[in-house]
Amino acid sequence: MDHLSSYLVLSAILFSLGLYTVVTRRNAVAILMGVELILNAANINFVAFSKFVTHNLDGHLISVFIIMLAAAEAAVALAIVLNLYNDRGHINVDEANSLKQ
Amino acid sequence: MNLNQIVADLSYFIPEILLTGVLLMVIVYDLLQKAETSIRAGYLALGGLALTTLAVIGQDVSSPLGIFSNMLAVDAFGRYLKIVVSVGAMLVMWISFNSNELKNRRVGEYYILILTLVLGMYFLVSATHLLSIYISLEMVSIMSYLLSGYLKEQMRSNEASVKYVVFGAFSSGILLYGFSLLYGLTGSADIFEIQAALAAGTAPPALLLLILIMVLVGFGYKIAAVPFHFWTPDVYEGAPAPITAFLSVAPKAAGFAIIIRFFNVVFSGDGNPNLESWSVLENMNWQAVIGVLSVLTMTVGNVIALQQSNIKRMLAYSSIAHAGYMLLGVVVADQTGISAILYYAAIYMLMNLGAFFVVIHIKNAFDTEEIEDYKALGYRAPLLGVFMAIFMFSLTGLPPTGGFVAKFYLFRALIEYGDMYFYLALIGLINGVISLYYYMRVVKAMYFGKMEFPKKTHQAPLNVTILLALLAIPLLFAWMLGDPLSAYAQHAVQFFIK
After folding, report:
1. What is the model's pLDDT at position B436?
2. The domain containing residue A31 runs over which residues?
3. Is the Cβ–Cβ distance between B314 and B233 less than 8 Å?
4. CB distance A84–B180 less than 8 Å?
5. DSSP 8-state secondary structure symbol assigned to residue B67
6. pLDDT for the residue B480
7. Residue A49 within any structural domain of the chain
8. Are the beta carbons of B174 and B214 closer than 8 angstroms?
């Protein structure tokens, strides 16, 4: 059980770092990196629970799918950010405010 | 679970297989077309989707069942929403053929993305496993990011897309973390087994509340509920108008489907939403949380909509408000509440798509999205003016339009459910009055005030007129149609349970 809690602490730390990154950074790529941290925190949770709590492969399976989906999402997100860069010459989310508030 | 079982399950999976086949066919067909003729891929996509819709309608759901080890459910609830999103997608494709924003560019992949989005929504409305919920949610989200940024040389469009992707990725990350905690807490990823574990009552309430909030971030973002709505106005304004219309209707309906299924199974006392009376998990009052969310959503949506001058933005806030009304039905955890939401979703699709289609046509013809420029529209383009007025009356919820009937069912469900819920219905009613102001501002601009009368009137092309009539006429006669449609919605409240 002690092992499980150390994994959970690690994932909670990763989650918090990801949350902090998303909230404080203004660079679109940095925000996406923060999101990536959150996803991997969830991954660690799934694998740890799978190993120590449920003793089956469900959690491992889910985390493999998450890795794949994270890659797909990152590919699309980076393409969109690249498009913003081509348009404006920067990828600062703060300055993308041509739409009325 | 063996191979034979998987093969046997495939026969309940025919609409999805058909849609995937159509999707692949459209991709290949699009490759053979030049940019100028790529619209043909759109026609093929529309035909294929019509065929798929027929397959969905023909599906036998008399005995609900779970397929692929209970990853997906085949039930009347899922079928109803599949029909709603398919019809919405077909209407949007139809108006896209007429949209000027999409002229002079290669549009094959536009229709391919819409089809993929529809496929994602088919999965989302029938998902019964944390993994299938997450995958289908991502499928819907990623396609929505791409579609909202489709006009990639336009600054507005790609800004909308960036905002959407940043918010979306963030909220689905939070959702996933909530799911991982739920998995650890209950030891299963199947929503029925999760319910059974939670019903034992050993889970700490604080942790459950945390999970509830994390799950609500993910789902609330999909239906644009306050406070997860920040992306909505910007994305709706910047995205191509047909996509705005689509996003405001179909993914929202699918988002409600997963909220209803998830909450009424996972957080219910007996995990059986097919019973006459439903129970709620004892150590967590999620109805109160959703009630607060719903009041916030409709009030914020309506109040901010009052100040908008751009009609797309106004409709964006109005769609937030309508999500708030529909959330009222989720609070009523019984059959009448859910059937009221299902009815509302169908009517809302007709009226909101109608309003957006008029906006799209006005943009094509007069190149404007400002409410001020709708001045004297009732005289410049009489037919369009009449249609717009019908949609605005219906969105407000004035009798005898469909919007009124839909709101009536929703409020009736609340009042019947219990005394405390009467106040929620009252708040909903007050919000309806607030919304009267901004919807009627459009009607006022079209018909009243100082204006000069044009010599020549503008006539919309025949196919746009037919499309608008198809949307407007059912709304006018909904009080008569009310019963068959609501009876159908009531039959649709039949869930697969393990």
Report:
1. 93
2. 2-88
3. no
4. no
5. E
6. 77
7. yes
8. yes
pLDDT value at residue B279? 75
Residue B145 to residue B154: CA distance in whole angstroms:
15
| Confidence bin at A100 (pLDDT 50/70/90) | low
| Residue in A32, A41, A98 closest to B155 by CB | A98
Q: Is the peptide bond before B400 cis (omega within 30 degrees of 0)?
A: yes
- Contacts with B94 (C-beta within 8 Å, 6 or more apart), sequence order: B46, B463, B467
| B149 touching A (Cβ < 8 Å) | yes
Chain B residue numbers with beta carbons less than 8 Å from the beta carbon of A60 are none
How far, in whole angstroms, is CA B154 from its chain's centroid? 26
Q: Pick the closest to residue B232 from B223, B224, B222 (CA basis).
A: B224
Among A41, A80, A98, select the one facing B145 at the smallest CB separation: A80
Task: Look at residue A93 and tell me if it is in a domain.
Answer: no
User: For chain A, how many structural domains are there in total?
Assistant: 1
Name the residue among A31, A48, A80 with its Cβ closest to that of B149. Answer: A80
What is the predicted pLDDT for the residue at A89?
83
Q: Which residue has 């937030």 as its token pair?
A: B320
Q: Can you give the residue ranges of every domain in chain B?
A: 3-491
3-class DSSP assignment, residue A101: coil
Minimal CA separation from A35 to chain B, in Å: 6
* Centroid of chain to Cα B306: 23
Alpha-carbon separation of residue A90 from A23, B154, B161, B356 (angstroms): 19, 16, 15, 33
Q: Is residue A55 part of a domain?
A: yes
B130 contacts chain A (CB < 8 A): yes
Cβ atoms of B150 and B110 within 8 Å: the answer is yes
- Give the count of alpha carbons within 13 A of B332, CB side only: 29
Rounded to whole angstroms, the Cα distance separating B342 from B85 reads 12
Structure-block tokens of residue B430:
């007050």
Written as six digits, the tokens of B291 are 């009630």
Within a domain: A100: no
Contacts of B189 in chain A (CB under 8 A): 58-59, 62
**Beta carbons of B237 and A42 less than 8 Å apart:** no
Whole-angstrom Cα Rg for chain B: 22
- Taking CB atoms and an 8 Å limit, are B131 and A65 in contact across chains? yes
Backbone angles phi, psi at B66, to 5 degrees: -100, 140
Interface test with A, best of B166, B217, B234 (most A CBs within 10 A): B166
For chain B (498 residues), the mean pLDDT of every run of 10, in chain order, is 86 94 96 90 95 93 87 93 96 92 88 96 95 95 94 87 92 95 92 89 86 93 90 91 94 94 86 75 82 94 92 93 93 87 94 94 88 84 91 91 91 87 91 93 85 75 91 87 79 84
Query: Against a cut of 0.90, is the pTM above it?
Result: yes
Instruction: Please give the Cα distance from B254 to B352 (Å, whole number).
Output: 16
Chain B residues in contact with A96 (beta carbon < 8 A): 159, 162-163
**SS3 call for B73:** strand
| Nearest alpha-carbon partner for B175 in B241, B126, B130, B113 | B130
Whole-number pLDDT of residue B269 = 76
So what's the ipTM on this one? 0.95
Q: Which residues of A touch B113 (CB under 8 A)?
A: none
Q: Which CATH number do you get for residue A8? A: 1.10.287.3510
